[in-house]
Structures are given as structure tokens and as C-alpha cells.
Amino acid sequence: MQALVEQHQGYTASRRxxxxxxxxxxxxxxxxxxxxxxKTGPGDAADAINAIEAIGLGSRDEFHAALSAVFVRRREDQxxxxxxxxxxxxxxxxxxxxxxxxxxxxxxxxxxxxxKPGRSRVADALTPSPTNSKASKEIPEVDVDARLTxxxxxxxxxxxxxxxxxxxxxxxxxxxxxxxxPFSEYPTRRFEPAASASRIDPRATMRYAMRSGGGLILPRxxxxxxxxxxxxxLADISGSMSQYTRVFLHFLHALSERRQRxxxxxxxxxLTNVTRYLRRRDPDEAVNACADAVPxxxxxxxxxxxxxxxxxxxxxxxxxxxxxxLLITDGLEREGIEExxxxxxxxxxxxxxxxxxxxxxxxxxxxxRARGVRAILPHVDELRPVHNLQSVADLAQALSGDISxxxxxxxxLSSGATA
Length: 419
Known about the structure:
Layout: H1 2-13, H2 21-35, H3 42-55, H4 60-71, H5 78-88, H6 94-102, H7 119-126, H8 130-133, H9 152-158, H10 166-177, E1 186-194, H11 202-211, E2 221-227, E3 231-236, H12 242-258, E4 262-267, E5 271-273, H13 283-293, H14 303-313, H15 315-318, E6 324-328, H16 337-350, E7 353-357, H17 371-376, E8 382-384, H18 389-398
Parallel strand pairs: 3-4, 3-6, 6-7, 7-8
Antiparallel strand pairs: 1-2, 4-5
Helix pairs in contact: 2-3, 2-7, 3-4, 5-7, 10-12, 12-13, 14-16
């Protein structure tokens, strides 16, 4: 806090000359918040400087409260602001750091806590981009024949989620959030007013005629209301599927923000409903909340038993009105094959469309030889990969159209067929 007081003293002494260090730091802090996702501008930086001048620098908590009152406009932005404030305005006790470096340390065997929501975005905002640091240097123009090359974005689309680094996974999450997810609409049993002469609405016609005393009767029309069907997701979070499911949860988070009636269930050895956790605004916070709510994350798997639990407890609640079901699993079930086949058949009969997303399809020589895979295949409408950005984009496009021949599961059931 002493560093802040010194900055404030320098700011008040040089306010007239416009060279205050605190002013520059507040402006830079505003830019960091904007890069981290908060909606800030030059006017907010000026308001923050005026607020600090009005309240003074009595304590770190008062300084935090003043900046938070100016920069935070939404409740979901508060964790990101707190993390940025902690990293940007941290104390620079160099003497204490050197003493800590020279002192002997015991091995820290404590379990590391999970990263806080927004930490990765704040770290990226505080880290200067290598392209920006070299922007002032003149780069000679070089003509390159790019006919046989591919951009980094195209390479990212084809890269497997399991082979991505932390920075590449962050880029993949941002690309997933930008995906346009149109959905086909189906007619429901309810009606809505219509301008065309499709069907006469007797009640609306009589209500409109009563306004003129019944002297003039003009027909009113109605049509069936069209809505996208409910979407139910059953995602495997066992050891072999946890990394793919974690990335796919970002797609489901973006999907939940853009449409209603989306239900997400995670299963390993038991079934967990995480729909309400993905309703949180911050995607990192939502995914971390899902991971905390599931006790068997990255553990074993019992596909047949968990599908049976879903059919008994949740099928009648969420599979109404022609729901579309996404089943995300590799299908590697060792025990209970008869139960798995029976519950998969019951699930298929209860929904409009069952789409199986299997990351094993990333292998060119994939064959349906596992007993669990052959038990599920006859009861799904589509079989698609889910291992990179391109497969997620293809899925979003397929959800808005008809069943594609490329996802026909019957081709894997024939002898010797490969993907």
C-alpha cells in the first residue's frame, strides 16, 4: 500500500504538469480490464482518477472499492476485476522477495488449488503480445507463395484437443464461443397470430368484431408456433473423456446463453445434472463449478447404469416436445453390455434424434470392434467426431439441418468397414 501512497503523492504534486504516475497506472489498468473482457473506456479512467482524488488513499480496501464502483457494471465481472486488481496493484516488496529467495525452503507438498475464474484472461491481458512489442519496428515486405501453406487458424481447427497447449486451448475456447449455432424449428401444438390466410382464428375474429359492435367482421388468422426442440446432453467425464468434455462444456455454455431448454448431464460412475452451473455468465467459472459438482471426474465409467438412471429419473422431465439428445462418450464399456444396449434403445425411442459424439473417430482406422460401441451403434441416428474445432463447427451446422449421410452409423456395423 505504501507504493500506492507514493504514487498518489507524485500524482498530486504533478497534476498540473500532467505527469502523475498514478494517472498513467490507472489508465493502463483500465486497458488491462478492457482486454480481459470488461467494457471500459477513456471516460471510466477519468472517473476513476476523480474518485481516487475525492476519497484519498486511506487503505487498499478503499482504493479497491473506488475502482470497483467505476469499472464493474455487471455482477459476473466482479471476479475478473478482483483478479486483475490483485495482480496489477500487488505490492513490490523487493527486500522481502530477496530474503525469501535466500532463505531455505521446505518442499511444498500441499495440493494446489484450482485457478480462480478469470485468472487466465487477466494473465493474457497483463502479458504484452509479442506482435505489439515489435509493431514500432519496420518489417521488410517479403513476397511469399502461400498456395501450399495454411494459416494458424486453420491448423487450430484441425488440431486435436488432447494435443493443444494451454494457450491453444484458450484460443479454441474463444473460437467455440464465436460459433453460430442455428437450430431447426419444429411446429408445436400451440398457435400464434399470423398475417397470412393460413388458418382462421375464430376467437380472435370475434374479439376484434366486438370492438366495432359487431357491425364489421374481419377474419383473423393464426398458425402453429415453431420452436427449436429441447437439447439434452449426456457427457462422459471418465479418465479417457475428461479433456474432450471439458472443452466441449465451453460450447455448451455458449449454447445455453443463446437458447433456452438446454439440459446438461455429466456421468462417470454416476449421473450429475449440471444445467444450473452452466447458467453462470463467466465461462471459466461455469466450467469450474461443474468440475466441483461432479465427484467422479476423471474416474471410471458405467455407461449402461448411468443411461438407465437417466431413463428412470429424468427422461419424462426433459425429453418432451421432441428433444434432441447428444451422447458424448467413447463407448468403451466392459461390463453390462446387455444393459447398455437395452438402455440405449430406450433412450433412442424417447427422443426425436440421438446423436453420438465419439472422439475415437479421429483415428483413420477406426472400426466398431468394441462390444460397447457395437451395442450403441444400432440405436443412434448419427455418429460424429468431437475432437477438434472443425468437428464442433460441423456439429453446430448439423443441428440446424437434416441428418447427414456422413454421420450414418450403419456404415460402421458392416464387416470390415472403417472410418
